[in-house]
Amino acid sequence: MVTKEQFETIENGVRVRLKFATVPKLKGGKGNPHQGRILKVTEGAIGQLFTSGKGYFDRVNEGLVEEGKEANFEPKPRAWGVRVEGTPLIEHKEKFYLDVIFDEPGQTRFLLDGEEIERDMIEGLEEKKEGEQGGLENKVYVRSIGLESIESAEFI
Q1: What span, in angstroms and rounded, lies between the C-alpha atoms of 38 and 112?
Q2: Taking CA atoms, which of 4, 30, 50, 154 is between 20 and 30 Å from 104?
Q3: Tell me: the pLDDT tens digits for 85-142?
């Protein structure tokens, strides 16, 4: 497991390779027999860490320019949490999250009660939809991952 201190003094734009495991929310509420029993394990995901929310803004606008579009993207305010100034950390309800812009998604597998299960066999698992991002076709994938979910973080 990682600690918030590992991310408090990093340089802006540093790249990181992550391994993390999360429990996805599934559709169907408590009636879903898989609810709370699925673990999503991702290994080898590579992304960039930015010390302000400007990294996301810049990446989307750079992508718009590359696609021959006007760089007029303005992100909406965060829906939850507060950025810890000068770090890639988000604080929310006394927990810390690492804000990562992914370049490579890594390999993901799913476990049901510790046994591997195919994604399409999981009841109520949905794909996360990205926002409009100013009409950007090659979306910028940003995620806030709870520090307690991150098993390893290697700066590269």
Answers
A1: 5
A2: 4
A3: 999 999 999 999 999 999 999 999 999 999 999 999 999 999 887 788 988 999 999 9
**Cα 23 from Cα 111, distance rounded (Å):** 10
Specify the 3-state DSSP secondary structure of 85.
Answer: coil
- The first and second tokens of residue 31, run together, are 């009636």
Which domain does 123 fall in, by range? 4-155
Q: What is the pTM of this model?
A: 0.90
Per-residue pLDDT tens for 20-34?
Answer: 999 999 999 999 999
42: left (phi over 0), alpha (psi -120 to 50) or beta: beta
What number of H helices and E strands is found in the chain? Answer: 1, 9
Tokens of 127: 């794909």
Sign of the CA dihedral running 116, 119, 121, 126: positive
> How many residues does the structure list for the chain?
156
The 10 Å Cβ neighbour count of residue 64 is 20
| CA-based nearest residue to 41, from 117, 139, 104 | 117
